[in-house]
Design goal:
Helix content: 25-40%
Strand content: 5-15%
Order of helices and strands: HHHEEHHHEEEH
Structural class: alpha+beta
Number of strands: 5
Number of helices: 7
Number of domains: 2
Distance between the termini: 41 Å
C-alpha cells in the first residue's frame, strides 16, 4: 500500500533486513545438542544455566544415562586425607552417588537435576552439586546426613510433583478438558482447593485459597492455568 508523502513523517522507517531478522529470531528455537550432556559431574554445566526451554530435556537425558559411577576405576589416594580414597562399594549403598574422575570428587545426581535456586550456600546447600566434596574420612557420615536432610527430601518431593504435572499436561496437549474442584481444610486449618482433569480423572494441583467464595476460586483457577500454560478456551 502506497503511503501519502505528507504522512511519511508519522511512520517509523523500517528496512527489509531488520524485518527478516526479527522474523527469523521469532522462528528460532533452542535445541538440545548431544554435546550439552557431559557424563563427568565435575564438568557439567548447572541446570539453571541451560535455556528454560530445554531444561526438562536435559534432565531426561541425564536420567536416561543414570548416575556416573566409574566401576573398576582406580581411585586416587589423597595424602592430606591420610591416603584415603573414594570407595567403589559406596555406589551400592547410595544409588544417587556420582564420582568425577576429572576432579576426584563426589556428587549427588538427583540434587544436580532438581535442586532449586538459592541465594546462599547456607548449611552446605551446594555441596555435591557446585562445590566439590572429597573429604573421604567423613564421606559416609556426610552421605547419610545428606540423604536424611529435610531440604533434600522437600526437593525430591517437589521435583516428582513437577515431573508428574508435566506428563499430565503433555498427555492433555491441545484437547478439550473439564475440571473438577474439591474443597477441604488441611491440618493448619487452611482452605485448600484440589483440581483434577476430567473425563479421565487426573489429579493436577492443590492450591491454598483464603476462602471458597466464587471470586477467590476464580483467581486461583486463573493463576493455575497461567502457571501451567492452560487455556480457558479449551475448558
Amino acid at each position: 500500500m502506497a503511503i501519502d508523502p505528507r504522512m511519511k513523517k508519522y511512520y517509523k522507517p523500517t528496512s527489509r533486513s531488520s524485518e527478516t531478522e526479527s522474523s527469523s529470531q521469532k522462528k528460532a528455537c533452542v535445541e538440545l545438542s548431544p554435546s550439552d550432556i557431559n557424563a563427568d559431574p565435575g564438568l557439567r554445566k548447572p541446570i539453571d544455566e541451560y535455556d528454560k526451554e530445554i531444561r526438562d530435556q536435559v534432565r531426561r537425558a541425564y536420567l536416561l544415562n543414570g548416575p556416573t559411577q566409574p566401576i573398576g576405576h582406580t581411585f586416587s589416594r589423597k595424602q592430606g586425607d591420610h591416603f584415603r580414597s573414594f570407595q567403589e562399594s559406596w555406589f551400592k549403598k547410595f544409588d544417587w552417588l556420582e564420582h568425577s574422575v576429572e576432579n576426584d570428587s563426589a556428587y549427588f545426581f538427583y540434587r544436580y537435576l532438581f535442586k532449586q535456586l538459592v541465594t546462599s550456600d547456607k548449611f552446605g546447600y551446594e555441596i555435591f552439586t557446585r562445590h566439590v566434596f572429597n573429604n573421604w574420612r567423613k564421606a559416609l557420615d556426610a552421605f547419610k546426613e545428606h540423604m536424611t536432610s529435610p531440604l533434600t527430601q522437600k526437593e525430591m518431593v517437589k521435583a516428582c510433583a513437577q515431573e508428574t504435572s508435566l506428563v499430565i499436561l503433555e498427555e492433555l496437549g491441545d484437547k478439550l478438558f473439564s475440571v473438577l474442584i474439591n474443597e477441604s481444610r488441611d491440618t493448619s486449618i487452611k482452605e485448600q482447593m484440589a483440581m483434577t482433569g476430567h473425563v479421565i480423572e487426573t489429579f493436577l494441583s492443590i492450591e491454598h485459597v483464603s476462602d471458597t467464595t466464587t471470586s477467590s476460586l476464580k483467581v486461583a483457577i486463573e493463576g493455575l492455568f497461567a502457571r501451567h500454560g492452560l487455556s480457558i478456551s479449551r475448558l
